[in-house]
Amino acid sequence: MGTGEFDVIEHLRARFPLVGDDSAVVQVPDGHLVLAADAVVEGVDFVPGCPVADIGYRAVLVNASDVAAMGGRPLHVLLTIVAPPGTDLLGLIDGAADGARVHGCEIAGGDLSGTTGPLVVSVAITGVVEGGAPVLRSGARPGDGVFVTGRLGAAAAAEYRLQAAWHPKARVAEGIAARRAGATAMIDVSDGFLADLGHVLDASGVGVRLDRVPAAPGATQEQALGGGDDYELIFTLPPAAVAPPGAMRVGTITGDPAERPVGVGGWQHHFT
Amino acid sequence: MGTGEFDVIEHLRARFPLVGDDSAVVQVPDGHLVLAADAVVEGVDFVPGCPVADIGYRAVLVNASDVAAMGGRPLHVLLTIVAPPGTDLLGLIDGAADGARVHGCEIAGGDLSGTTGPLVVSVAITGVVEGGAPVLRSGARPGDGVFVTGRLGAAAAAEYRLQAAWHPKARVAEGIAARRAGATAMIDVSDGFLADLGHVLDASGVGVRLDRVPAAPGATQEQALGGGDDYELIFTLPPAAVAPPGAMRVGTITGDPAERPVGVGGWQHHFT
């Protein structure tokens, strides 16, 4: 590795108070504890040569977004780096620490390992849902409105996915607001709006009638619908609920599971 | 991958009730929550061709052992698999599920990703320490006895580390017993007895006078001292404490940090 492993461990212990024993001992506020894990892999999620700080940030972002999609708040990050020789580990950790800071959580521990293969940054995250139940994918009901927390397609338009520096912030506050407004189902837009909405429809056994979705500046409607890496949230609200500020309505849930626009469905490789 | 990713996700959802949303919603008993993460990497922790079920088991084992070393009990496993094409994902997951069952914990979620490189299995774990404080590495005091929970060196003697099937069980019950007996410091033997004891001495600012350590059948004293992958526990107890059944005394903590046998020290790449 580019820096002595011992130096890196010392760096981590000095920066992150929870790091340094066999396990980290952590505090969790009252509420529902949620857990998720997601890895970013060189050649799959980013191209070789992508700045390591961006990779570290992104590994935390994608996990924070999974917590946000439950209506939760991120608490602790476990950061596992499997790195080929010459990797700038301190730069990568700085990026992850920046991601943790932006999302209000702490790096609690992790693992460092060498490899002869591509760089893998694997993150696990804890979060808490306070003052109510987590919002699942499975609660959408016919008549519910479908909302998004922001315009879509910016990442696709910028070809962010594999290359460009792009530091979106997971929609933690927006997810909490949606939950408090009475959201019946929620998911984050990582694979793409249509694919991720499809997961909600599948889990809820419902269909949807879509309006036009709000595209980010410079993004086509196609990029908004299928681009992915948006890290906005999709949620559903009963007809009587008042949508939180900033949320944009994009459609209505129907009782017919077969009713969905072409392209809604897909698959998803994250199993949290 | 060897099996359609969608099939694997369905398999996971069917087998593990917590899997299937953006995050897993979990329950934690009263006590201190502990978190750890550890990856196993092809070519580093195991040789290519090692049975995938053994790799899955091992990825859970090493994490359960980190929880055991705090005097805790494992609760939830997040399993992230970064696999080259052709990997038997279901076999690997079966091995991890076996590891979770043996250690009394649940697979709560994770991630699947492809790679052009070697197989990486990254696990994060939660655990709980009930009815008392977690045992850290830093509490050893002069006069404390040094104990191990079992004979050492079996893995080294069997050349387990990179090849052989070997399903040790993390010493969860023994760690809890050591904590209840009043253990002042504890660590698991993953890097090797001398290296791991060195971490306790460093963290506690003390030295040690060692007796002979108990070697496993077929293991040399050198393998017992330095072999690693034992997953026994080392702990320290005040002079007045009664050691739990099965624990073997191997030395005494001293007040001089410089007093340590040749080979005690080393480094460790796990930062939880």
Describe this structure in words.
Chain A has helices at 5-15, 52-68, 89-102, 154-157, 172-180, 193-204, 221-226; strands spanning 24-26, 32-41, 73-83, 106-114, 120-129, 145-148, 185-188, 207-210, 233-237, 248-254. Helices cover 27% and strands 25% of the residues of chain A. The first copy, chain A, has 2 domains: 5-129, 60s Ribosomal Protein L30, Chain: A (2-Layer Sandwich), CATH 3.30.1330.10; 145-254, PurM-like C-terminal domain (Phosphoribosyl-aminoimidazole Synthetase, Chain A, domain 2). In chain A, the strands form 2 sheets. Chain A has a 5-stranded antiparallel sheet, sandwiched between helices. Chain A has 272 residues and is of the alpha+beta class. The two termini of chain A are 31 Å apart. Residues 265-272 of chain A have low confidence and may be disordered.
